[in-house]
Amino acid sequence: MDLGIAGKRALICASSKGLGRGCAEALAGAGVHLVMNARGAETLETTAEAIRSAHGVEVTTAAADVTTPDGRAAVLAAAGEVDILVTNAGGPPPGMWHDWSRDDFVAALDANMLTPIAFMQAVLPGMMERGWGRVVNITSQSVKAPIPQLGLSNAARTGLTGFVAGTARQVAEAGVTINNLLPGIHATDRAEALDGPVARAQGITMEQARARRAATIPVRRYGTLEEFGAACAFLCSQHAGFIVGQNLLLDGGATNATL
């Protein structure tokens, strides 16, 4: 399928690896020029060069911590006018309700709620003036069904979801759509970070921990970066203009819900 977005320009946060890279690869494959961001400059440059070589698109890099005002300003300056925004950030550390201080919650809100909102506030006016735009926020399956040990993520990402629910319906008439992708477990560093403590606590290997987690997913496997990226690229396409303010689960059926 021709997604109809060749030549568009996309800003993708946290895209040197993981789900962000999956989105970057898929958009580049559709002919979209990229502005890629991550904190680590070396990995970011390596990934950017690989995408340039594979897809022949323009790739601009902006290494910065986007949870800071200066970091966001640097990335937005490098990006210029963008047609597509994909927000993404690593999840806060796991724990239980009694483990977290106010500072922990503030850090989670900065990374997983306030930073995506700040990026949307920065790029939405331009998209609306030009009459076309796509925003995809990578959140989590936890906004549909909270995960006890991920309370920081539950709180911050649900707050972002509420913001998007209202905002998406205010900008849609200008040809701009905002939607959220809700990943379950995918084969990323985040999965490694979650499986490691389980393996240590239960005295099992990482392979056994992964197998036990996979057994709880109806498809009996972790998601891939390629299929996640393909879903993101479709939401960014010309064919997705009637999809507004939605929360699309990509979790292999793990969230047991009727709606």
What does this structure look like?
This protein has 259 residues and is an alpha/beta fold. It is built from 8 helices and 7 strands. It has a 7-stranded parallel sheet with strand order 3-2-1-4-5-6-7, sandwiched between helices. Strand 1 (9-12), helix 1 (18-29) and strand 2 form a beta-alpha-beta unit. The mean pLDDT is 95.
Map the helices and strands.
Elements (H helix, E strand, L loop, with lengths): L8 E4 L5 H12 L3 E6 L2 H15 L3 E5 L5 H11 L4 E4 L14 H29 L2 E6 L12 H21 L4 E8 L5 H14 L3 H9 L10 H11 L11 E4 L9
Parallel strand pairs: 1-2, 1-4, 2-3, 4-5, 5-6, 6-7
Features:
single chain; alpha/beta; 259 residues; 7-stranded parallel sheet; 47% helix
